[in-house]
Description:
Shape: globular
Radius of gyration: 33 Å
Amino acid sequence: MPERAQMKQMARSQIKGNIGILFAIVLVMGLISATLVGGLFYPAMNVGLCLIYIGIAYGQKPSLGDLFKRANTFGKALWLSIITGFFTMLWTYLLFIPGIIKALSYSMGPYIMAEHPDWTARQCLNESKRIMKGNIGKLFVLQLSFILWYMLCGITFGIAYIYVLPYVTTTVAHFYNAIKGTPQAVPQGTYYPPQAPQQYPPQAPQQYPPQAPQQYPPQAPQQYPPQAPQQYPPQAPQQYPPQAPQPPTQ
Length: 250
């Protein structure tokens, strides 16, 4: 998983140039949800919003129409919102801290439904609990690292949310992309993954074909065929075939 600072840095760079459209998306979402009927449609729009931010984390450009790409999850998204709220409230009534833990444990449900709209609400909730095992503390610390930004939103009477909300949500999308792995709650008859898996975080392309590592320091090329080592000091060449020694003269 990338470091917290790395995820936040990637989020800041990816929302540049997208603040306007993201603000328009949230504004339309708020206007629709202001009515009673629109409020029932809010969970499905929230799933669509999660899909938008997952795409931003992979470098895609958002559009207003993406908000309604998961409109077909209306019933399942509404039920996911209901059971998530019910279980979180139940744990909060027992003890406050377990309520926070469970809220974090269930928080990836909309992101999972955004990528797997054919799953049931219960499957998305179970998958969220599975991938959050061992990651609840990390998400809590990640959210806590935005506390100064939240204070800025209060000081500016909410105006800073125009920037802070995309910043926080894109960072959480990076967190989700880093921990999701391969789901285990795949419904029967569903092919997974529907697309080629994305590498996260993206890495530089590998050189092909691979080259042999260079030796350092470089050595002189070997002579072929190898020759016998030179004798030192050099001796006179031997005559072949050898001759008998000459007798001494008188």
